[in-house]
Amino acid sequence: MKFSPLYSGSSGNCSLVSDGVTNILVDAGMTGKAIVSALNDVGADPAKLSAIVVTHEHSDHIKAVGIISRKYNVPVYANAGTWKAMAPLIGDVAMRNIRTFVTGQNFYIGDIDLTPFPISHDAAEPVGYTFFSKGARLVYMTDTGHVSPALRETASGADLLFLEANHDVDMLKNGPYPYQLKRRILSDRGHLSNDAAGELLTGLYSTGARRVILAHLSRENNTERIAYETVRARLSEDGIAEKDFFVAVAHRDRVTGIFEL
Ligand SMILES: [Zn+2]
Ligand SMILES: [Zn+2]
Asked: Is residue 260 included in any domain, yes or no?
């Protein structure tokens, strides 16, 4: 399985999961043009997309869901709560391309086994996903204000974890956002901080997790360097050396790379 974060951050999210035959977009929260250009950058053909799977209906995740589905005849998968909230926002999607799953129940797209799991976020029925293919497991976990024991369990032993590190708590508190927005982001249904991501990762080391891509960084309240260094420092505190835990940071505005697992 190959995983390519195309865009990740508060201004737009889209990733590609592929086993070479089945090509799944996770969210399509940029313009259609930007997504097609990023797909070209990783050598993928938008005409060969198998599906778009949606995490939740916020605009930074669904901006081009309707556009790509219509243009390339791509099925869109979401749970009932997300469909209800998203449908008025994305324009017409052909009946044959409206696919619904039940949160917590696994399903297949081609040979890739997906399990959508609930996250803690201020949307209708937000989910993260685990992707399982040929013995490898990718866990996609962003837009969660809180890491519950169930989420910790889901992330345990992941071969690759795509994990939110949205903000530096001090930058957010001292930054320009209005009070209500700061409260929303810091709440249990908001976004995960660099500290919280680091804390989760130290706990996951003993489960065999060795690779993480930090994701969904805020433009105003974080930088790639601060996210990386905060998480790295937390791992070091527990004696986990750089060579023992691979930490990458997803770019907000361009392809991060192609990660194999
Ligand atoms: Zn988001
Ligand atoms: Zn969101």
From this structure: no
Residue at 175: amino acid letter:
G
Domains contained in the chain, number: 1
**CATH code: domain of residue 199:** 3.60.15.10
- Whether the CA torsion 156, 188, 5, 97 is positive or negative: it is positive
Ligand 2 mean position to 123 CA, how many Å?
7
| C-alpha 118 – ligand 1 centre gap (Å) | 15
On whether the CB atoms of residues 222 and 168 are closer than 8 A, the answer is yes
pLDDT single digits (tens) 119-130: 999 999 999 999
| Residues 72-109: tens digit of each pLDDT | 999 999 999 999 999 999 999 999 999 999 999 999 99
pLDDT at 27: 98
Predicted structure pTM score:
0.97
> In the prediction, which pLDDT does 71 show?
98
Residues, beta carbon < 5 Å, ion ligand 2: 58, 143
